[in-house]
Structures are given as C-alpha cells and as structure tokens.
Amino acid sequence: xxxxxxxxxxxxxxxxxxxxxxxxxxxxxxxxxxxxxxxxxxxxxxxxxxxxxxxxxxxxxxxxxxxxxxxxxxxxxxxxxxxxxxxxxxxxxxxxxxxxxxxxxxxxxxxxxxxxx
Length: 117
Fold this sequence. Notes:
This protein has two helices and four strands. By secondary structure, it is α+β, with helices and mostly antiparallel strands. The chain has a four-stranded antiparallel β-sheet with strand order 1-2-4-3. A hairpin with a 7-residue loop joins strand 3 and strand 4.
C-alpha cells in the first residue's frame, strides 16, 4: 500500500478521535501483525462513541450520526469515506468495532502484509 494513502486513512480516523474525545480523555493507537499475513492499526478513544446501528453508515459521504457532529464542529463529513476508500484501495478493510468499557470508539484498519502470499 502506498504510504501516503495509508497516512490519509489513519490521519482521518485520528482526526475524528481527537475531535470527539473530551479534554483530558485518551486515544490509543496500536499496530499489530498476524503471522506476516495481515497488519492491523487500531485506534481507540474514550469519546462519545458511535452506536452499532450507525457504524457502517459513518463511512458514507456527508453522513453524520447526530446533530452534535455538525459541520459547525469542523469538516464536511468526508473524512471516514476517504479513509475507507484509501484502505480498500490497498486491499484492506476498515470498521468500527466494540471498544473496551462502556463508551468510546475503536476503529480497526486491516491491511495485507507487504510479503503476504
């Protein structure tokens, strides 16, 4: 995968994590590999979270799950759509999954390892 395309995907997810995590909150970024087959980048925050029913929709262009995430808070609703495009262009996948604990978001980007068969 092209580094600049991967950087675009990760920076868009991180931008949302920073934007919606409250002051004093935390954001964790972890990179793991799975037997040289797959690389995963997981970004977890303790912000307001995304309801399970909205987790697929947030990757649509211009979609916002609620009024609290309006254009007034910045952005045009394209960041996650661009992130999905970037990840899928590299043969990977991106999804929001259940975070540990009661609140927050966990986004996992999975990509084939460079030497994967």
